[in-house]
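Hi R.,

As promised on Friday, here is the backbone we talked about, encoded as structure tokens. Could you run it through your design pipeline when you get a chance and send me back a sequence?
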């Protein structure tokens, strides 16, 4: 069994650090990893637990967590609590380097013990929580050494998830507890092929990069929470009774460590201004007994002791352990969550997020990073300005009272905070990231990963998934271990994701993974899915090194034939091509009674069948396969951006442009006519006016995808003669440059192939070859991969050879292909001797977009 080893530098059984570890580790645990957690008792000195055996700490944690620690640490000479405290004061705070040799010796021995423990367990993933905070720099150095050696020995790649909740500038900087910038005594994060670093917010990331400018693989990952109202239910109904809190009284909830820095005294002073309100303080009263005694005496002196409950530890927010109450149970009964902490103590402020997630209003002090994490993001709450006044006053108390009693204001605050919380730190944020960076394992027999981008496809998704599930190989079902589905949700707001999970649960014999791509656009979603599958495919166990792996694109609004995947796989295996392109067709029954429209569509498809058989064609997102290594050689799916109405939008021809990159790299593309995809006709049905005018995908060079989900049944009317002529002309104008010229423009050697020469004729093939060489030299074009770069030469060659190209199509496809559509009026008026010159200017068309509009801008049928 694979093992996740977690280490917390916090040295407490429950804290914000441990809770976030549990939330993150939950995902790999669900995929079968055994989770072992070292609480850091043998790391952090100030909690008084150094070398202390675990007692009942496991009862506070989920059953899927095994408490563990590195073996033999207590046997290392000179390594103990006193040594760690001495290093902190002398090296980190005072800058005295006398202890460096001893630190290095102990770090070397610690690293060996850590490695030995990981070897014994078979660790494959490590999560380090707060390891950069210099409480114990010997242990931090040991971790880096162990990670480097263990990762290299087992070829684990980036197997370490290293998250810093607190850093030097966030943890009591006023007293320089960890030194001054640039923190010479602190082991700075270092670039490693095995570590991915995470900061909690953008400011922490920026400060980290200011400290370590060349640090790579550093991302922002906020603490994550399940956004759902906390409710009183059968399990927690007795919470108030069990803690002596009367029913019906307003309850202020404080979830905290009971230490001076948390400033629970502010809540006691606030209570004096809120008659009838009770305070529940959830935290370990034994951690700092003197502080608990001071707070108890203060509550008595202020006359509120009878309304204060020190309730001890509660289990983490997202846990439900038998016989124990959780933070979420408290919040189900709370009126307001309080977080009146010290100015320079908190980084993220988990209790605020827990309040937001549970649908409970909160109040807070204006601690240093409050605006960075919450206030500046639009979250709403009364904020105590502790720079202006240390304790709550009557004005602040009135704000709190209003939040308790005004139901309308309370509901609006909860609504706004919940919506923002779901977007910024809902659990999906961390789940998606863990799935991307540490994806679930892939079976050894899996050879194909079908990537399915989706956006609000609830109406048709079941049927599409069923066609993928029902794939066949000959007369038998296709072996489900041979392939998988990666569904990429692109910010759906309907039931798409729930339907996908339900489909997967009902059919466990086929692996279906759901990941999320936050950047809107099918190109972005396709890239995310293919990158996800490619990375996972390299970690398959017991895999034949010679076996090729394929990434397959599918479309959520198209149906694939029963042998779609097996035919595609067989063709790719036999041809060893880099890309396999499917055949596409429409159901003729859908166009019954529309003969003119059907004729225009069929002529385009007949042309494509001929040219694809010759040149291999180019991939279309509706159905193609790419061999993984070729995908990675080409740099993967590249997202191009263009300006539309003053904003950057991603370009939608990622599939074609990817094929161009592959062809330019010298890899082969093969056409697989027996692998067939039925095209959904809704674009033709619901955007027919744009289709027949060549604007279905935008205009002026801006290629966009209109949402054409039908809001009403399509009107099944045929085209008029004039409309049919217009539709055909735009279709053939779009088709011819892309499918008869572009292949030989990218790969001139094709013009020496016998079949290609037979198509063009020897004379035309030779003249095309000469003209392509001239244009390449004239334009100094070597690389046609940038978007649009191939269009100018393709368009130029079209105009120069249009009559002869159409003669080829008539000869090989049918006389009904006809003749070239009329030239643009501006070219029709150009003298013959200057035609080629002005074609060049027209096709470059740098400002007007006319050339793009003439050629239909990206496809018709």
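Update: got your reply. Pasting your designed sequence below so it's all in one thread:
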């Amino acid at each position: 069994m694979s093992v996740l080893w977690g280490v917390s530098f916090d040295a407490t059984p429950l804290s914000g650090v441990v809770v976030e570890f549990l939330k993150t580790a939950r995902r790999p645990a669900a995929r079968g990893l055994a989770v072992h957690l070292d609480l850091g008792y043998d790391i952090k000195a100030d909690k008084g637990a150094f070398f202390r055996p675990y007692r009942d700490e496991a009862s506070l944690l989920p059953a899927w967590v095994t408490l563990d620690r590195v073996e033999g640490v207590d046997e290392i000479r000179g390594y103990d609590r006193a040594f760690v405290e001495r290093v902190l004061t002398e090296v980190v705070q005072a800058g005295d380097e006398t202890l460096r040799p001893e630190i290095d010796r102990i770090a070397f021995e610690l690293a060996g013990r850590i490695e030995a423990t990981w070897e014994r367990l078979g660790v494959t993933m490590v999560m380090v929580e707060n390891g950069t905070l210099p409480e114990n720099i010997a242990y931090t150095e040991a971790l880096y050494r162990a990670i480097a050696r263990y990762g290299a020995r087992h070829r684990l790649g980036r197997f370490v998830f290293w998250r810093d909740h607190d850093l030097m500038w966030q943890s009591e900087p006023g007293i320089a507890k960890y030194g001054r910038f640039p923190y010479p005594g602190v082991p700075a994060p270092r670039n490693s092929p095995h570590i991915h670093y995470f900061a909690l917010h953008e400011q922490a990331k920026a400060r980290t990069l200011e400290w370590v400018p060349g640090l790579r693989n550093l991302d922002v990952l906020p603490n994550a929470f399940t956004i759902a109202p906390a409710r009183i239910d059968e399990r927690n109904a007795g919470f108030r009774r069990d803690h002596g809190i009367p029913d019906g009284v307003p309850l202020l909830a404080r979830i905290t460590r009971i230490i001076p820095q948390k400033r629970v005294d502010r809540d006691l002073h606030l209570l004096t201004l809120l008659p009838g309100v009770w305070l529940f303080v959830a935290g370990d009263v034994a951690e700092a007994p003197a502080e608990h005694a001071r707070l108890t005496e203060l509550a008595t002196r202020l006359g509120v002791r009878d309304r204060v409950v020190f309730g001890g530890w509660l289990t983490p927010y997202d846990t439900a352990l038998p016989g124990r109450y959780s933070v979420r149970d408290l919040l189900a009964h709370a009126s307001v969550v309080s977080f009146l902490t010290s100015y320079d103590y908190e980084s993220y402020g988990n209790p605020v997020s827990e309040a937001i997630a549970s649908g409970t209003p909160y109040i807070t002090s204006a601690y240093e990073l409050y605006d960075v994490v919450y206030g500046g993001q639009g979250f709403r709450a009364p904020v105590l300005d502790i720079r202006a006044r240390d304790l709550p006053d009557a004005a602040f108390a009135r704000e709190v009272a209003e939040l308790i009693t005004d139901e309308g204001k309370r509901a609006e605050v909860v609504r706004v905070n919940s919506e923002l919380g779901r977007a910024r730190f809902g659990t999906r944020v961390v789940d998606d990231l863990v799935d991307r960076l540490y994806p679930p394992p892939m079976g050894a027999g899996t050879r194909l990963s079908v990537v399915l981008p989706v956006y609000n496809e609830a109406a048709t998704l079941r049927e599409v998934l069923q066609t993928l599930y029902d794939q066949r190989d000959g007369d038998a079902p296709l072996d489900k271990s041979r392939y998988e589905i990666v569904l990429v949700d692109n910010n759906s707001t309907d039931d798409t994701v729930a339907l996908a999970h339900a489909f997967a649960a009902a059919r466990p014999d086929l692996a279906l993974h759901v990941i999320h791509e936050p950047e809107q656009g099918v190109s972005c979603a396709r890239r995310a899915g293919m990158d996800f599958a490619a990375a996972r495919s390299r970690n398959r166990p017991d895999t034949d090194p010679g076996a090729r792996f394929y990434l397959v694109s599918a479309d959520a609004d198209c149906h694939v034939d029963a042998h779609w995947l097996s035919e595609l796989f067989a063709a790719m295996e036999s041809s060893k091509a880099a890309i396999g392109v499917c055949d596409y067709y429409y159901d003729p029954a859908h166009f019954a009674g529309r003969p003119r429209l059907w004729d225009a569509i069929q002529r385009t498809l007949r042309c494509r069948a001929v040219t694809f058989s010759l040149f291999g064609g180019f991939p279309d997102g509706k159905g193609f396969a790419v061999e993984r290594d070729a995908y990675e050689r080409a740099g993967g799916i590249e997202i191009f951006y263009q300006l539309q109405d003053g904003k950057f939008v991603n370009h939608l021809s990622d599939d074609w442009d990817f094929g161009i990159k592959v062809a330019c790299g010298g890899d082969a593309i093969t056409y697989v006519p027996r692998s067939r995809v039925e095209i959904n006709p809704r674009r033709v049905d619901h955007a027919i006016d744009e289709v027949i005018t060549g604007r279905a995908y935008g205009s002026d060079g801006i290629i966009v995808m209109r949402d054409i989900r039908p809001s009403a049944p399509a009107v099944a009317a045929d085209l008029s003669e004039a409309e049919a002529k217009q539709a055909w002309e735009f279709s053939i104008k779009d088709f011819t440059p892309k499918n008869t010229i572009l292949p030989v423009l990218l790969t001139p050697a094709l013009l020496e192939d016998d079949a290609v020469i037979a198509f063009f004729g020897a004379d035309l093939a030779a003249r095309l070859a000469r003209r392509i060489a001239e244009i390449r030299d004239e334009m100094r074009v070597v690389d046609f991969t940038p978007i649009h770069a191939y269009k100018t030469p393709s368009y130029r060659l079209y105009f120069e050879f249009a009559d002869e190209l159409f003669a080829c199509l008539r000869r090989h496809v049918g006389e009904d292909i006809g003749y070239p559509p009329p030239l643009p009026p501006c070219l029709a008026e150009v003298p013959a001797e200057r035609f080629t010159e002005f074609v060049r200017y027209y096709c470059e068309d740098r400002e007007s977009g006319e050339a793009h509009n003439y050629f239909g801008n990206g496809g018709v049928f």
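One thing I noticed while checking it: The chain has 30 helices and 27 strands.

Thanks again,
M.
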